[in-house]
Automatic annotation (TrEMBL), chains A, B:
Gene designation: xylR
Keyword Secreted: no
Listed GO biological process terms: D-xylose metabolic process
Domain of life the protein comes from: Bacteria
Reported function: Transcriptional repressor of xylose-utilizing enzymes.
UniProtKB keywords: Carbohydrate metabolism, Xylose metabolism
InterPro entries in the record: ATPase_NBD, ROK, ROK_cs, WH-like_DNA-bd_sf, WH_DNA-bd_sf
Protein name: Xylose repressor
Organism for this UniProt entry: Halolactibacillus alkaliphilus
Annotated coiled-coil segments of the chain: none
Pfam short name (any one): ROK
Family per record: Belongs to the ROK (NagC/XylR) family.
Length: 392, 392
DNA sequence: TCAGTTTGTCCACATGTTAGACAAAGTTAA
DNA sequence: TTAACTTTGTCTAACATGTGGACAAACTGA
């Protein structure tokens, strides 16, 4: 039933504690580790020597003295293994080879012109194989593959529905595991981005953070107590389909007045066409509208502000429900930031129940953060480090 | 910084594991505890003997043999200590003395005609003193006081705002601690009810549960991963103030189109008056309307269904956001269940994103559950059992 | 040059879990 | 009635691990 506690667990936990300390404060001396963790100096010495044997830690030259013997600095051996993390978007694959700190070694970008799963899958395999070739020799090699997808993923790594790819019931985790035979993690793109931003986007990571991915649809990744929350089956965060306008516009989900019918890229483009904001021979896109806004096209700016108003309503709702520390807006519509940021902040400040608004921060991210990739890499790394503990 | 792991911690954790096993499966033999927990028989024996010394466990007579020596059955000593839990409502105090399993020993109910804090506080103190007198002698005596309040409570037990009591910035935890000198826990009433229902309302407690308290206002208690989620400052769950109708009715919170302006007791009564559903000399109340509905008053039933429709919209939003296993509707409007339950289930099933609705269950609770009291008792008990671990 | 400081290792010791022996107390079947 | 088997609970020796403190090595600063 429950897990019992014995001396082996104690050792594993302490070893993990030492390793985490070294990861977070690398480079660091044994003495400092002992001081920070509260463990005995002798204990730290013995655990560190095992970590060195296992290639997780290396010794570098002596550090600066602080009035006594010079310390031997310990480094986390970030290249003891590598992960491959992918961001599968609509029309593209972004992929990266990362080390065990999540730092990106090599990047690949590929445009996709087909959406059929079988085709896309071979591209995915190709990209991964490419990155494996670029991978330096290391003690542990490839320790995991993480892939973020724009759709609903259950706890078994199965994609139940990815509307913009027109995929249904695809067991991607299985399929990739069969090919590469390493742990594979499949997660919703917004969830991964949320986790990635929490881990890498702040000096001190926020405890409770919501990441709104506002693209063609709207998804939300929730990091509560520094942990990704995904609900009973993994479907939590379907923010695009909360009702903001009773008896509002029909949504393909079968409901009416859904948030994403008012505040998404899709809503933006629909309105732009309806209002004739583009001439006949232009191809409609967010970037095109942004160009016009930059050229001070008042009607476009007005449209941006209207969409921003709806986004602000959604954010206010989230603040009232979750009392979060941080909200991040990502994906395509984060580009509207210059025209809507101030309005949103003002709206939330005025309309969220008083106390919250004093602490919550609303920011915009940019695609260059590679939040999804970094999040997926984090998942893979954490799974690897946990698996180590369980085996030894 | 982090907590280190040594043999003392191991012992504490194992002791807690043994105690929890005994609590959950009382009566149980030492041998069975060893089998269930995976601990060695000898370890269990030694830990149990300490638990007996500390009065947490008692031995009862021999149990039935299963083909060998008859086991000595161990019982959780539920009366080793007691808690007092209160539900402070608008116009009443409900209070109970409970044992360490949360079972109610004695109940008190008191109507309040005043709302001024000083007055109410003396009543609270009186009720607690009454219950203390009714408390049997026990090794640990009163181990904690828990009090659920209809307002916004921060992590320090301070009531920042209780609109229906007209209280602001009241440090209730401090005040009670000063009088009784035992641990005091103050929590929002919906949060407590959520926890109480999770702990005591099901055969197997749901992992992810939302409790909607629909009274004059609407609050939500969230139990995620069997833990109460309260957000950064403790203000999470302000569901009454999420926007469901863009540019809708003004709310006292400063926002417009808030959920509680359409789906609460307040909204119900307002509409009933507006539609002239009561004669001049009747005093308006939910119970009065229910009587009329029971007498088949069609307009009242129609009004109930309209309110139910809004409740369904709110629930659908919650299902889409949280992917919960269970939703419970409590407080005054749960009484409308006979007229709205089916409609709500149907609406949620039709409008929540497909996959969720297949698993989520929406139920109504009744005040007789004493959910808030039981939740507050749980908090107090858990705090007590934790404090034991830390000291020894 | 020497006293003081810091780092890291080593060893005896305390603590707690485990495995297994064992006795007590019961059941079952001939 | 008896003998073989089962179950329970205690006890002991063996083992693993963390702790505290001694100690040597390496360095600083006056």
């Amino acid at each position: 039933m429950s897990r019992t506690w014995n001396q082996y667990i104690v050792k594993q936990e302490n070893k993990a504690l030492v390793l985490n300390t070294i990861i977070e404060e690398t480079p660091i001396s044994r003495a400092k580790v002992a001081q920070v963790t509260g463990l005995n100096k002798g204990t730290v010495s013995s655990l560190v020597s095992e970590l060195i044997d296992n290639h997780f830690v290396t010794e570098s030259g002596p550090g600066a003295s602080s009035g006594g013997r010079r310390p031997v600095m310990l480094l986390f051996n970030q290249t003891a293994g590598f992960t491959i993390a992918l961001d599968l978007g609509v029309g593209y694959i972004d992929a990266a080879l990362t080390d065990l700190t999540g730092s990106i070694i090599t990047k690949k970008h590929m445009k996709l012109h087909e959406r059929q799963f079988n085709k896309v899958f071979t591209y995915i395999v190709d990209v991964i194989n490419n990155l494996i070739e670029a991978m330096p020799k290391s003690p542990y090699g490839l320790v995991g593959i993480g892939i973020g997808v724009p759709g609903v993923v259950n706890h078994n790594g199965e994609i139940l529905l990815a509307p913009n790819l027109n995929w249904k019931n695809i067991h991607l985790e299985h399929a990739l595991h069969d090919v590469f035979n390493v742990p594979v993690i499949v997660e919703n793109e917004a969830n991964a981005a949320a986790y990635g931003e929490m881990r890498f986007g702040f000096k001190t990571p926020p405890e409770h953070m919501l990441y709104l991915s506002i693209g063609m649809g709207i998804g939300m990744g929730m990091v509560l107590d520094k942990t990704l929350y995904t609900g009973l089956n993994g479907f939590a965060g379907e923010m695009g389909h909360i009702t903001v306008v009773k008896d509002g516009i029909n949504c393909r989900c079968g409901n009416t007045g859904c948030f994403e019918r008012y505040a998404s890229e899709q809503a933006l483009l629909e309105q732009a066409i309806k209002r004739g904001l583009v001439s006949g021979n232009e191809e409609m896109s967010v970037d095109l509208l942004i160009e016009k806004a930059q050229a001070n096209h008042q009607e476009v700016i007005q449209l941006f502000k209207e969409i921003g108003q709806y986004i602000a309503i959604g954010i206010t709702t989230m603040v009232n429900l979750f009392n979060p520390e941080q909200i991040l807006i990502g994906n395509q519509l984060s580009k509207l930031s210059p025209w809507i940021k101030e309005d949103i902040n003002y709206y939330v400040f005025r309309h969220a129940i008083g106390f919250h608004s004093k602490r919550v921060t609303v920011d915009f991210t940019s695609p260059e953060h590679l939040s999804t990739i970094k999040g997926m890499a984090s998942f893979a790394i954490e799974k690897f480090l946990l698996s180590i503990k369980e085996v030894e």
